[in-house]
Amino acid sequence: MATTAIPHEPVARTEHQELPFIRKYIFATDHKIIGIQFLIMSLLFLFVGGLLAMMIRWQLGFPETPMPGGTVLPETMAPGGILLPEFYNSLVTMHGTLMVFFAIMPLLVGVFGNYLIPLKIGAPDMAFPRLNMWSFWIAVPAGILMLAGFFVEGGHAAAGWTAYAPLSAKGEFSGVFAGQQLWLLSLAVLGLSSILGATNYITTIVNLRAPGMTWFRLPLSIWSLFITAILVLLAIPILSGAAIMLFFDQTIGTHFFDPTAGGQPLLWQHLFWYFGHPEVYILILPAMGMVSDIIANGSRKPLFGYHSMIYALIAIAFLGWIVWGHHMFQSGMNPTLGMGFMVTTMLIAVPSAIKVFNWMGTMWRGNIRFHVPMLHAVSFVAMFVIGGLSGIFMASTPVDIYIHDTYFIVAHIHYVLFGGSLFALFGAITFWYPKMFGRMMNVFWGRVHWFLTFVFFNLTFFPMHNLGVGGHMRRLYDPSEYEFLQPLAGTNRFITVSALLLFTVQIIFALNFVISLFKGKRAPENPWDDNGLEWTVPSPPPHGNFVTTPTVYRPPYEFSSPLVEEDHLPQDRDLGQKTDPASAPGTG
Amino acid sequence: MTSDTHEIKHPSYWTIWAILAVLTAAELGVAFLPWPKRVVVLILVGMAVWKALLVALYFMHLRFEKGRMRIFAIAPLPLTVIIVIAVLTEFVW
Amino acid sequence: MAHAAFMESPRDRELGAGVYNEKLGIWVFLGSEVMFFTALIGSYIILRFANPGAFAAPGEVLNIGLTAVNTFLLICSSVTMVKAFAAVHDGDQRQLKLYLVATVLMGAAFVGVQIYEYAHLLHDGFGPGGIREGSHLAERAAAGELSLGTPDPATAGIYGSTFFTMTGFHGFHVTMGVICMTYVTIKAFRGKYSATDHRGVEVIGLYWHFVDLVWIILFTIVYLI
Amino acid sequence: MSWMLPPSASTFAGDIDFLYYLILVITGVAFVVVEVGLIWFIIKYRSRPGRKAYYTHGSVRAEFIWTAIPAVTVVAIGILSAPVWTHVKGRFSAPADALIYRVTAKQFEWNFTHPGLDGTLDTDDDFTIRNRLHVPVNRPVLVRLVSEDVIHSFFVPAFRVKQDVVPGLNTQVWFEATRTGEFELGCAELCGLGHYRMRAMVTVHDADDYERWLASRATTTALR
Ligand code: HEA
Ligand code: HEA
Ligand code: CUA
Ligand SMILES: [Cu+2]
Fold first, then answer.
1. pLDDT digits over A145-198, tens only?
2. Subunits that touch chain C (at least 3 Cβ pairs < 8 angstroms)?
């Protein structure tokens, strides 16, 4: 059998060790190392983003009360531990920015795009390994620029992660000068990194698939990353262009978004959301793909409706381009256009429904193993549905009149991004951790972390719907200013306490992650009995991945196949023509 | 690499170059014609698209690529049209 | 079946799209460039419709003659580029070098002319913020010689903003192209390209033609309309 | 904590609230179906030794059903939403007899220009009040929104009205109050450090009271 024929000490590995430290771990061109570099970077940013969220929550739960430890912050941010309104706005802006651009996006695309694509398609590395290295080392300065904004005169960008002009265009309006400019610059630089990465992914998937790895034998994680890469490739340049125009408005006196000299504030919104909506699908599609892998594995069943899952991904990505106006229903945009956007937005529910029900279909009559990745993956489905359904309220233009820019939106954001993307990421990290580091994560603590996160996540974000229904506006420094929000103060405090607990239990994950690196049980080649090509090589895989290029004989989710005794059937196992009709490396 | 058989029916690069140069000169003339602005704009845009197509088809060899590559090249174009048309309706309504 | 061959030759594994990685890569990358210029040019179209009176008639502010020459230069550089590619394809090293050098020179000249143009415009009082007060152009506008800024003079700012951003970013792309092309030229002089392997020449060529193509659009909509 | 919308006070609020509750019910059903299904599958199909999962690649019929049902549902929601949207925000939706006000927003205050006794804007008896809006009950009111600096958003929760105020873009919005009393008006678009306190009050008078208030107002403005 071809699978087990791969020796454990391949030639490639010795060659690997000859690389000096700096080429091996710092300026690495190995996609696996680059993936791990992205992992470290984005987990740090996830942590920082979470920390900012805690400050936000403190202010909302306990306004005018000094924040514990807040006195370490300088006077310009929090005199006496009480956050200033301008600092609060920076916090919200940077929380959104860091989470979206520096945590979730690099985690999904940077980490798993890099790590999984070559391994899962049977390639030795990316098509352009050196470009790959650059894409990481361009992201790092972008992150530094972004963090630098906290230390400049006038504070960091404070116009929200959406940076609506003209507030963001003129320092006089916000009191922020250098901070906003650094913000724009950083995003433009990060954009370059993303575009290089996407170019690489697309080329790799198109050109470097192993023999027999036809399009319809690709795992959904790869399909979703492929479609995501296309979205990145085409959406990010719009942001870069817009960011540069806004940067020029700030620095060299252009007037793109300045209504007093012929500019158009709504133009910024159109450009931002023309990028922004595809962006939110960039933040969910890879999660959906990896969850598909994990759910099929956990259920020990082929993925239900593999082909329609792929078409649904494509449909979501396509529709994602023509719905951006749903963020602008109340912006003064042409209301007739708004109607069109309502219809297209509604339609996105259809491919999403296909995905959700197909995941359920996969579990139906399965033989479900509740390993930690599976717990997270099922939570993903459960939570994404809540976030998706709340999207329907907002898609209905009349209802959106009332709930636009309220906590209903904030609840939606977090159900899709935390309940969705981040749960999927917890699942994906635990699933591929053994492959990445050659060690297993602790199962007991993994379960504890999952359970507590699931509980506190819901306690934190579910009540936000109710705040929104009560009319609670978002980006509101001190809700106690409004009489009609006074009765909601209790809910706000409840959310804050839950959020603090949510943050605290993440320590379990961090510790489990770090301690398992050294103390974890040694991981076998294929700890989850999975079918993907990455599980046919040692954990961690050597430089160059495969000793001999694998040949692929079948689709990725052949669990519980009647052809074999075991309940999994790896993609590269040759059963011979007679027993296996799917054996010929067919067309795609 | 694609096979070389296409090279035969390939028009001379210098011919394309000459057409481009002539079109550019013609554009200069058209721009100052005393015709209604709309007509002039329409003609100019038409000529620009023509020139752009010449470059894409012959200099970038799109004409001789496989169908798949051609799809790649034109895939983003609908997206450019979508945003411009949609935002333009802001000024018509 | 074709697949038997597909599996046997390891090199054929690279044939997913029927082209080699670098070529596929540059086409993919150009897709993102299209979207980048969509943001710039799209904004221009939109802002122009929103402020019909903010843009001067052709030739009033911008020097069309000079730019026409520059356009011609870029078209010439495109044809020399494709000739260089054809030369290396036929294994003609001498012509490859010749045409590459010509392309680099013309590309650099284009950037030079653009810098000269910018200097002049800035001197006349036309900058990214519009028309500078008290400048030569402002006087002409006040004297009613320009169709610019009608009816609301304040909107004229958008004219300068779009002009400098679009042409500036195009110029930046040309500059990057010249730098990369210089690198390719040096490699060509070292004899690194042959009739069978000339990926670098083709890739830089595709980029170069794309930049030329963008200029064709820009020249028409910015200078002539 | 409640899923009930706060009490409303405008003519179209009922339509909006109806849509909200309708979607709440529809999504509620979808929510229950999915979550209960998940929990049921988790329990029923948990792994047990010696059992193999049922080997299937899907079912076209099942997939067709769960594609068609949501499709029909969301289209229905869209069809029901469209007329309400046109009624509230459509280009020509404001009733012709609406009383016209101008609202000038700036960091961080609302200036309400009332049409005065003659009921028309831009006449001599107009007057402007900071952070207070007075409107008559049961009479359509059209507010013209102007911003002097950045984007703000005119939000009166009780009226279910929200409209961004964009500099350079003269947006407008209308409503018709159905109850007298005081209602809070907030800014719903981040507009800078004072965003959170950009608050105003709307007073809805009954017809007579509104006249009286205007008259008393007129004398004070005349004195000025
Ligand atoms: C991962 C990110 C992600 C995802 C996947 C989505 C998915 C969706 N989003 Fe969301 N959205 C955001 C991230 C995301 N969003 C963010 C960050 C913002 C705020 C930005 C800001 O202003 O800061 C936002 C804002 C936002 C708005 C603007 C609100 C406002 O500002 O007023 C709207 C309006 O239509 C919207 C709608 C939707 C819809 C319809 C979907 C759909 O794709 C959801 C489809 C899924 C389902 C519907 C569930 C599964 C289906 C079934 C179980 C079938 C049964 C269902 C029915 C019969 C209805 N989103
Ligand atoms: C993926 C995106 C993401 C995530 C994960 C979160 C997480 C959280 N967010 Fe987020 N939030 C946004 C995206 C996200 N948010 C966006 C886009 C906005 C809009 C911004 C805007 O309006 O401009 C927003 C706005 C926003 C608001 C509204 C502010 C306002 O409008 O005034 C609030 C308020 O409560 C809030 C709270 C929280 C909380 C309590 C968490 C908690 O879940 C945080 C919990 C902590 C963590 C998740 C970190 C744990 C750390 C690790 C796991 C690292 C482990 C480390 C190692 C192994 C080394 N967020
Ligand atoms: Cu004004 Cu917020
Ligand atoms: Cu969206």
1. 999 999 998 889 999 999 998 999 998 898 899 999 999 999 999 999 999 999
2. A, B
What are the pLDDT digits (tens) for B42-61?
988 998 999 999 888 888 88
Quote the domain boundaries for residue C97: 17-224
D158-187 pLDDT, tens digit per residue, is 999 999 999 988 899 999 999 999 999 999
Residue D167: cis peptide before it, omega within 30 degrees of 0: no
Q: What is the SS3 string spanning A515-537?
A: HHHHHCCECCCCCCCCCCHHHHC
Using DSSP's 3-state secondary structure scheme, residue A262 falls into coil
Domain membership of residue A122 (yes or no) is yes
A573 touching B (Cβ < 8 Å): no
Query: What is the CATH classification number for the domain harbouring A538?
Result: 1.20.210.10
Please give the sequence-ordered ranges of beta strands (E in DSSP) within D138-213, or none if there are none: 140-147, 152-156, 161-165, 171-176, 181-187, 200-205
Taking the CA of residue B43 and the nearest CA in chain C, the distance in Å comes to 10
The verdict on residue A373 lying in a domain is yes
Amino acid code (one letter) for D110:
W
- Answer whether C71's CB lies under 8 Å from B24's CB: yes
pLDDT, tens digit, for every residue of A102-119? 999 999 999 999 999 999
Distance from residue C161's CA to the centre of ligand 4 (Å): 29
Q: Tell me, what's the ipTM?
A: 0.94
- What is the CATH number for C104? 1.20.120.80
CA–CA min distance A236, chain B (Å) = 13
Q: Which residues make up the environment of ion ligand 4, defined by Cβ < 5 Å?
A: A 277
pTM for this entry: 0.94
Where are the alpha helices (H) located in chain C, listed in sequence order? Answer: 2-8, 21-50, 64-89, 93-124, 136-142, 157-189, 199-218
Domain count, chain C: 1
CA of D121 to the centre of ligand 3 (A): 25
Distance CA C54, CA D122 (A): 29
Query: Residue D183 pairs with which residues in a beta bridge?
Result: D202
Using the structure block, give the residue that is written with the tokens 């409503």.
Answer: D175
Distance in Å, CA A95 to ligand 2 centroid? 6
Please tell me whether residue A586 adopts helix, strand or coil conformation.
coil
Residue A5 falls inside a structural domain: no
Closest Cα in chain A to D42: A368
| Residue C11 maps to a domain | no
- Show the CA angle centred on residue C133, arms to residues C129 and C135, nearest 5°: 105
Query: CB–CB of A435/A534 below 8 Å?
Result: yes
To which residue do tokens 């806004």 refer?
Answer: A246
DSSP three-state, residue A396: coil
- Measured over the CA atoms of residue A492, residue A495, residue A500 and residue A501, the dihedral's sign is positive
